[in-house]
Amino acid sequence: MYSVPVAGLCPQGSYGIQDSLRSGFTSVKNELLPSHPLELSEKNFVLNQDKMNFSTLRNIQGLHAPLKLQMEYRAARQIQRLPFLQSSNLALDTLRGSDDTIGFEDILGDPAQSEMMGEPHMMVEYKLGLL
Amino acid sequence: MALSNVLDSPAAGFNFDNAARNAAFEGLFEGGQTPKPLKTGTTIAGVVFKDGVVLGADTRATSSEVVADKMCAKIHYISPNIYCCGAGTAADTEKTTDLLSSNLTVFSLNSGRNPRVVMAVNILQDMLYRYHGQIGANLILGGVDCTGNHLYTVGPYGSVNKVPYLAMGSGDLAALGILEDGFQHDLELEKAKKLVRDAVHSGIMNDLGSGNNIDICVITAEGVDYIRPFQESEFKDRREIKYKYRQGTTPVLTKKITPLKMEVVQETTQKMETV
């Protein structure tokens, strides 16, 4: 089971310090607290939800049930496009049951229409951990 | 433009990038003159009667001290047998009820059944609790389903109450007074409509944020009767003259026309199937 990252605002550079070349100068105030009360809880919402559901399932039906489901999730998570392209996540949605529900994440901030585009090579390298 | 500092595609859903900037703005403006969202400053009321549910609402939407909309529709459609009145931030109630309606439609297509009011309440409760009150929606849900006639209220933090008569919004105290006085179990249709109308009227008379017309929605097992407006306000303004400026009011001083030079780069023809 994944552990949920709490300090979601850690500096992203090697050795854990701020990479000034890529992300600019640091400011302690910016990194202390998330600026919006919902920012952290929204970032980890799906992970938390899954964790809660699996733990309930484990308590009701034993260890094997969440284990099997986790295996399917892991397999579905590997069916993705390259990082800079939008993947539909159909298998993952079907497993989670979110293929027949509509929430704010389907209406607002559609990644297919995002105004910012990342450099494809850098995104792939970041995904593979080479960066 | 491909930016080299974007290493992950942005997550869908709410975007909190501007939160830090907004917090800095509030400090700059000294006294909170940041633009306020459109609130509905409302009176909404609902009553369960013998054959169903009656919902009533006023039609004024305010933006601080200005009336932004005189014919705002506050009774939203959720499903053929469930309607919802919304008080609070106008956009929040609108979007939340739209999402709820979409979810229930998909559910009823999947299962072939009419949704129950308690399902709508549960979906709303989960959704609003997730956002910890940041979505300012105070809703009254009323509907008739196979288990009976129900009236629920859902607060912005996800609190739920099931009661036979209700009022919400800034005019709720005035409306509740009338409802407490006149409510009885198993009222007749006309009496119930009059009670709700009186309650909303009292809210309109005694609260600055409510006003203009009264809408009434009657939901029974046979169907829905959405009466908009049930009662028009007697304080309507009449525009005496037209406010459109006629052509020639602003004199044209000079005119300069520059034709754009375009050259044909590529020409393709596509055959259309016209059978």
TrEMBL record, chain A:
GO BP terms: proteasome assembly
Gene name of the record: POMP
Organism: Oryzias latipes (Japanese rice fish)
InterPro entries the UniProt entry points to: Ump1
Pfam family, one: UMP1
Stated family: Belongs to the POMP/UMP1 family.
Record carries keyword Acyltransferase: no
Protein name: Proteasome maturation protein
Keywords from the UniProt entry: Chaperone
From TrEMBL, chain B:
InterPro entries: Ntn_hydrolases_N (IPR029055), Pept_T1A_subB (IPR000243), Proteasome_bsu_C (IPR024689), Proteasome_bsu_CS (IPR016050), Proteasome_sua/b (IPR001353), Proteasome_suB-type (IPR023333)
Native organism: Oryzias latipes
CDD domains listed in its UniProt record: proteasome_beta_type_7
Predominant subcellular localization, coarse grouping: cytoplasm
Cellular location(s): Cytoplasm; Nucleus
Cellular component terms (Gene Ontology): cytoplasm; nucleus; proteasome core complex
Keywords, in A-Z order: Cytoplasm, Hydrolase, Nucleus, Protease, Proteasome, Threonine protease
SUPFAM superfamilies, per database record: N-terminal nucleophile aminohydrolases (Ntn hydrolases)
Family affiliation: Belongs to the peptidase T1B family.
Domain Proteasome beta subunit C-terminal: 238-269
Protein name per Swiss-Prot or TrEMBL: Proteasome subunit beta
Record-linked Pfam families: Pr_beta_C, Proteasome
GO BP field: proteolysis involved in protein catabolic process
A GO term, aspect molecular function: threonine-type endopeptidase activity
PANTHER family cross-referenced by the UniProt entry: METALLOPROTEASE TLDD, PROTEASOME SUBUNIT BETA
Domain of life: Eukaryota
Assembly and binders: Component of the proteasome complex.
Catalytic activity line of the entry: Cleavage of peptide bonds with very broad specificity
Active site: T42
